[in-house]
Design brief:
Chains A, B: Residues 1-24 are annotated as: Disordered. The structure is a homodimer of 226-residue chains. Chain A has 226 residues and is an all-alpha fold. Chain A has helices at residues 14-17, 26-41, 48-55, 59-65, 69-93, 98-115, 135-159, 168-183, 190-200, 208-219.
Chain lengths: 226, 226
């Protein structure tokens, strides 16, 4: 859709008068439009021109915020790992049993992957991400995976679980991406199902209800109905 | 690469004299080339012309085998669900405890997803798959997911596990796609790790070694070193 199609009066910058997308700033609107196009039409098939049209700005305005399409993708992807990375680092620094800490990380991360307007995790498998441009993002995501692995290894040690399972909680969390893609929506209780599953897969046989209560309090969210 | 670049002598059909790809037939060579391009360069960015060039045939020859690029994608994707669907149906029809049957399905399916030359599962998340053209494929994959769910539900019933976990084994199997994408290769023991994890996540606490032995014999594969 062009700016003209927005019913612009010719006074310029109709975007500021008729914001059509979530986002307080032009940058956020560009990210939202790009996320929609990348996840619904494909990264390779989306041009920066098409993104600009979807926001209702000129391409020149878009380039003011992002020099390249890859920069937009990088900003979107980085937004999916920054918070879990911070949380994982905080949780690893805490004392006490590992099981409730891993549970909190798994539920919080699955919630953010379920919660965004667009299924951004589906972009993790793009071949474009293997280029040098995305090495910083790949490194951050690998770091997150490594923090999951360390917390998972601590749980395995606590409950004498199988040593080779330490990568599975990270993978279970990512599975919400596939569920969203297959079902169109992410079932709202899925992060809690995955939280419980991520512990069981490591050999944990303790009470799930205590973990749920603890994680709900920590994250400031509602525990699922029993 | 054009046919000329193959060092063709001008006698025509150099492909038949210098097959450069796995596959006994032109159709299989086309599928192999397309799989490489789709997974390494992106589906949207790959033209049928580029596929024909990669095989060393004319576009007209390619169209003799596949009318559209979507038809090639459909053939590749269908190839990843046909065998597990057949196996799942066979296993569901068998009598006896569900745990060894689910274990065999999980290990076999993870092996085939790990074993192909290209990481075809990475294409499951393409937005193109949401179009009507791929409805038959989506239905077959949904059918496979449903068979996993039924076998998983039977395991849950056997071991008094958590009822809401029945979708997780299917998701754990798919996680080999992410591992391959992240690591470049699929670790060879991963199907067995996932086989054990898929049972534990359903609440199964029996002996893993017995399942491994039974599955190795059934599939005619080597059990992993203990």
């Amino acid at each position: 859709m062009s700016t003209a199609a927005l019913g612009g009066s010719g006074r310029g910058r109709p975007r500021l008068e008729q914001p059509r997308r979530p986002g307080r700033t032009a940058r956020e609107e560009i990210l939202d439009a790009a996320a929609e196009l990348f996840t619904n039409h494909g990264y390779g098939s989306t041009s920066t021109r098409r993104i600009a049209d979807a926001v209702g700005v000129r391409q020149a305005s878009l380039y003011h915020h992002f020099a390249t399409k890859d920069d937009i993708l990088d900003a979107l992807l980085t937004g999916t790992v920054d918070e879990p990375l911070q949380l994982a680092a905080d949780l690893l620094g805490e004392a006490g049993p590992a099981a409730p800490r891993l549970h909190a990380l798994v539920v919080a991360d699955a919630m953010q992957l379920c919660g965004g307007r667009w299924n951004l995790g589906a972009l993790y498998l793009l071949p474009e991400l293997r280029t040098d441009r995305f090495e910083p993002f790949r490194r951050r995501r690998a770091e997150l995976r490594e923090l999951y692995r360390r917390l998972s290894a601590a749980v395995i040690a606590e409950c004498d679980g199988p040593a080779d399972a330490a990568d599975l909680p990270f993978r279970l969390v990512e599975s919400v991406i596939n569920s969203r893609s297959d079902d169109g929506v992410a079932p709202s209780g899925q992060p809690w199902v995955i939280g419980a599953g991520a512990l069981r897969v490591l050999g944990f046989t303790g009470e799930n209800a205590a973990l749920v209560e603890c994680t709900a309090a920590r994250l400031g969210v509602q525990a699922p109905a029993r």
